[in-house]
Design brief:
Chain A: One of its GO terms (cellular component) is plasma membrane. Chain A: This is Binding-protein-dependent transport systems inner membrane component. The structure holds two protein chains of two kinds. Chain A is mainly alpha-helical. Chain A is built from twelve helices and no strands. In chain A, 76% of the residues lie in helices and 0% in strands. The chains are: A mainly alpha, B mainly alpha.
């Protein structure tokens, strides 16, 4: 039996969860409502609703270009980090070798140091070699946390594949490369999709590194959103919010797709059961 | 094993073969683009525009406007991190037995994707003097006039809770659901009440994990930047250290000084992370799950 005190405690906890979720939803709704509103002063809702801020934002901020750049950068980051991250995760999951803890530490460090700490020296190096301000500079900067992220995320997925499947393939004469293409990749599809989609969300929302390395033609959506807030004097708040809504949708879609393949708690913990 | 022939058989004996070499591209990448710039920045920080070897560091620590940023950042990052952990543990304890766990965790994960800029923009509207929160509070007669929640400490504080809580919650939930339920059942059979079971079984098992969670969440909160500028008072009480670093780099174009500030940030962080991990060493270390831990 649970005591009255325990029931009170439980109620308090749920009340907080509801409070938190309601406020987050309300906060998001303000942005959405404002992006459709005409004039919103001193009232619960705007005077009237319109689509014109979307058209304005699209033109003013050259959103078409910005979105294209954002997805080109995110796409390149995801592709490269999968290509070098998955093999590395495989080696770490399957082999024990001297210095392995050191290699693990090497992959953990970029995740334990905030982006701005290594971003400033990294941007300096990129300026020195002339890559800063270009799209490749932004891609390289975003790869620094994404590659380790992919490696760390993929290790548990690989560990849960029975090594006997691989041994069987080896017996039939498959080399490492054929093993990857015909056995591992098909088995790892859910894991790779989850890892790459999360890497995608991270890249699209990564402010600091892009801010430090981007030039005028290589800004991603989040950085151009930040700049437009500071130019707010000449721009309507509503068109900034329209841009924010577009930004939110562009990350939400990827996240929802990712969550279809992986349980959110598995993202951070070892996989206990096979992903659905 | 039927591994492909290694280049040097002596290495194969020690566990290094063709498969092990797959780790090389990623490892080289991290060395080249993380370790090298970091060391480069460290060296650069010792070559100031003016003054001797330690010129940048004496400049930073002799200017209260600059070294004050460390304290201002800590005053924001430490309470937020502790609050997020203090909220995550009881909620995760309740949620782990829930049927629709996946739905709730998904809802709670969503704010992570919003990004700090959008959360800041949203909070400016929502918490502002004419925002829905102030209106609701006035409607219910809880306050007389709008309370000020943006362009100060609390605006940044709230935004850090919104973006940080989902993250600590996810980590905590996955740790708590990893504890073998048999342990608690055994205690319950022996007559331990819920509080005692938490205090003597669950808590000791998750303390090591909480220490890691603290480190990750602290790193996140300590590097707060866009929200401190947009929601806070960047000239006053939320003049955080990453803002100082970005200013040195992009307004004064003094990369040497900016690198020095980045190094000071790293030292403060490693200090806290080291302290927490040392404290963690004093607690129980061992498996929490049924089989392998």
């Amino acid at each position: 039996m649970e005591s009255a005190l325990e029931r009170l405690w439980r109620t308090l906890i749920w009340a907080f969860v509801v409070f938190f979720v309601v406020n987050v939803i309300a906060m998001i709704s303000t942005v959405v409502v404002n992006s459709f509103g005409t004039r919103w002063l001193n009232s619960w809702l705007p005077a009237a609703f319109t689509f014109r801020w979307y058209a304005a934002a699209w033109k003013e901020f050259q959103l078409g270009d910005v979105l294209l750049v954002t997805f080109q950068i995110a796409g390149a980051v995801v592709l490269i980090s999968a290509l070098i991250g998955v093999p590395a995760a495989y080696a770490l999951a399957r082999r024990n070798f001297p210095g392995k803890p050191l290699v693990m530490l090497l992959f953990l460090l970029p995740l334990l140091v905030p982006p701005i700490t290594f971003g400033v020296p990294l941007a300096t190096v990129l300026y020195k070699v002339g890559l800063a301000g270009t799209m490749w500079g932004v891609i390289i900067a975003n790869l620094v946390p994404t590659v380790p992220f992919t490696v760390i995320l993929m290790i548990p997925f690989i560990e849960q594949i029975d090594p006997r499947v691989e041994a069987a393939a080896r017996v039939f004469g498959a080399g490492t490369r054929r093993l990857f293409i015909h056995v591992l990749v098909p088995l790892l599809v859910p894991g790779i999709l989850a890892a790459t989609l999360l890497a995608m969300v991270r890249t699209v929302s990564m402010f600091e590194l892009t801010f430090l390395t981007a030039g005028p033609t290589s800004q991603t959506l989040v950085v151009s959103l930040y700049y437009s807030v500071f130019a707010a004097g000449v721009r309507a708040g509503q068109s900034i919010d329209a841009m924010a809504v577009i930004y939110m949708l562009s990350t939400l879609i990827w996240l929802i797709v990712a969550l279809r393949f992986v349980n959110p708690t598995q993202i951070v913990a070892r996989v206990k059961k096979a992903p659905a | 094993m039927t591994a492909p022939p290694a280049r040097r058989p002596t290495l194969a004996d020690r566990g290094i073969d063709g498969v092990t070499l797959l780790v090389l591209p990623a490892a080289l990448f991290v060395v080249l683009l993380f370790v090298y710039p970091f060391l480069y920045g460290l060296l650069l920080s010792f070559a100031p525009k003016e003054g001797g070897l330690l010129g940048n560091y004496t400049r930073f620590f002799s200017d209260p406007y600059m070294y004050g940023t460390i304290w201002l950042t800590l005053r924001l990052a430490l309470p937020v991190t502790l609050l997020n952990i203090a909220l995550s543990v009881p909620i995760a304890m309740q949620v782990r037995h829930m049927k629709h766990q996946r739905l709730l965790t998904t809802i709670l994960v969503l704010p992570i994707t919003l990004g700090t800029v959008l959360v800041a923009e949203g909070l400016l509207n929502y918490l502002g003097p004419q925002g829905w929160l102030n209106r609701t509070l006035i409607l219910f007669g809880l306050i007389e006039r709008p309370i000020r929640l943006v362009h100060n400490y609390w605006g940044v504080f709230i935004s850090l809770v919104i973006t940080g809580f989902p993250f600590t919650f996810l980590l905590t939930l996955s740790m708590i659901s990893g504890i073998d339920p048999a342990l608690e059942q055994a205690a319950a059979t022996l007559g331990a009440r819920a509080r005692q079971r938490f205090r003597h079984i669950v808590l000791p098992l998750i303390v090591p994990g909480l220490a890691v969670t603290f480190c990750l969440a602290f790193v996140d909160a300590f590097s707060v930047f866009p929200s401190a500028v947009m929601l806070g008072a960047p000239a006053g009480e939320t003049r955080v250290i990453s803002f100082a670093a970005a200013q040195a780099a992009f307004e004064q174009y003094d990369y040497s000084y900016a690198s020095a500030i980045a190094m000071i940030m790293a030292v403060v962080q490693f200090g806290f992370v080291g302290l927490v991990l040392t404290l963690r060493g004093l607690f129980y270390k061992g498996p929490a799950g049924g089989g392998k831990g």
